[in-house]
Amino acid sequence: MNLIQGAIQFDGSTSGIKLAQYFNLYPDVNVYIDKTTAVQSGKDYTRLYSETYDVSDCCTDVKIKTVLRNNCGQLTCKLISKDCQSKFHVGDRIRLYLDKRCWFCGFIFTTDYKSSTSMTIIAFDFLRYFKAPLTYGKNQLIDDSTKQGLTASGIFRKICQDLAIPFDVYTNSQIPITPQNYTQKTAFNILDFAITETLINSPKNDRQYYTYFHETCFEDDYKKDMSKQEVYKTSGRVIFCRRNDLTVDTLIDDSMVYDYSFKESIDQQTYNEIIVYKDQKTYLSKKGKTLKKGKKTGTQIKKVSKSNLSKALFGYLPYYHRAPDGYSKGQMQQIADGLLNVFNRPTHSLSTSCYGIIGMRAGYLVPIALSDIGGTSIGISKTDKKTGETHIVPVYRTITECEMCIEYPLKMNLKISSGTFEEVDI
User: Fold this and answer.
1) In this predicted structure, what is the pLDDT of residue 290?
2) Average pLDDT, whole number, for the chain?
3) 395/4 Cα distance (integer angstroms)
4) What is the per-residue pLDDT across 361-392, written as a single tens digit (0 to 9) for each?
5) What angle is formed at CA 217 by the lines to CA 215 and CA 218, rounded to 5 degrees?
6) What CA–CA distances, in Å, run from 362 to 40, 254, 357, 397, 398?
7) For residue 177, what are the β-bridge partners?
8) How far apart (Å, rounded) are the C-alpha atoms in residues 211 and 199?
9) Contact 364, 331 (CB under 8 A)
10) What phi and psi values does residue 199 have, to the nearest 5 degrees?
11) Who has the most CB within 10 Å: 91, 161, 225, 369?
12) Calpha distance 2→370 (Å, rounded)
């Protein structure tokens, strides 16, 4: 049996993300911590970095973790030096270099002292600030030029500007998002809705997957006087881009994987009846006349999309989705049909432990060819007409979680989307 039949086949063509040039299982590792100071400029303060310390010799158990949705990049490590306890504090910046290139830059949020000579550090990148609660009215999420709702990329741009986070939009999305009122919602919540709406309303033959992540943007600055470089004053930027373009040129096959776990489930994100609803915005007086102000009727408008075949196989698995107030009944039905197409299938979870690929992160599309995973395979089986031999052609799958373990040899733990190509990681 072959698990993937409708996926995008890897043909060795030009990839959007070139990681093969960095491949090295035994890279040079350097870790720097920059002391943070605040400098007053008028009524405001600016964060600057006054001193840099090379802690490579006393830094152990280094791990970098990225997650596809609603989370920030994380670095954890231990510093086994007594001097570190008095020298480094929360707010300081930490940078990880592999083969003289920076692959993580973030800020220390937690220090944990286990003994007199050991300190554990937990650091996050810029996306940590996306957890801040935000409040927006509908009129704040409208494009002044088109008078329509902002697109997902437009909402991302506004959030970064409001949070004063450096950013860049690699690919602008084109589908307007119906404006919503948000009260004390995180940037993750707001963008999750916008990205999902963009995906559902994009053409079926050209689904638009978008994502965002922190990019260090540091060049080869090893052993340079960082204080003289403009980039030293920043800590990279948050990137918004189309996930369809994040194809990687480095293959994961049987020779790379040394352990795996393959799970099939209908208990998580499997639904066979979608109920899309919104509150009926009619107000009535005591005499039953429609008024602009009065008591809400309490009724709802509902649109349903269901699969009787799936209900016969798996039982009743409903999912309720609240539509924006401005959506018409036709738009609500379109959402219901789109969500059913996404959720009406068992989910497959593939976790692998394999040798590390420098630069790998959640959200990337990586070519995978595995011949024996739980009695099945990942890839497309092809038989040579002349020899009769069967081989597996790699297919692209999405990395949903990546934990890079900085040790020799370099290793990583991956969670990989492994269902059919129609599966969407939302």
Assistant:
1) 53
2) 84
3) 8
4) 999 999 988 887 766 778 887 887 788 788 88
5) 130
6) 37, 21, 12, 11, 8
7) none
8) 11
9) no
10) -65, -50
11) 369
12) 10
7 or 85, greater pLDDT: 85
Q: Which residues contact 118 (CB under 8 A, 6 or more apart)?
A: 78, 79, 80
- Is the Cβ–Cβ distance between 300 and 320 less than 8 Å? no
Q: With 60 as the cut, is the pLDDT of residue 232 above it? A: no
Q: Which band of pLDDT confidence, cut at 50, 70 and 90, is reported for residue 287?
A: low
Query: Residue 57 CB: number of other CB atoms within 10 A?
Result: 10
Which residues, other chains included, contact 26 with Cβ-Cβ below 8 Å and sequence gap of 6+? Answer: 408, 409, 410
Q: What percent of the chain has pLDDT over 70?
A: 86
Tokens of 353: 């432990």
pLDDT band for position 233 (50/70/90)? low
CA 230 to chain centre: 28
The pLDDT confidence band at residue 314, using thresholds 50, 70 and 90, is very high
Please check whether residue 358 is in contact with residue 98, taking contact to mean a CB–CB distance below 8 angstroms: yes
Do residues 373 and 386 make contact, with C-beta atoms less than 8 angstroms apart?
Answer: no
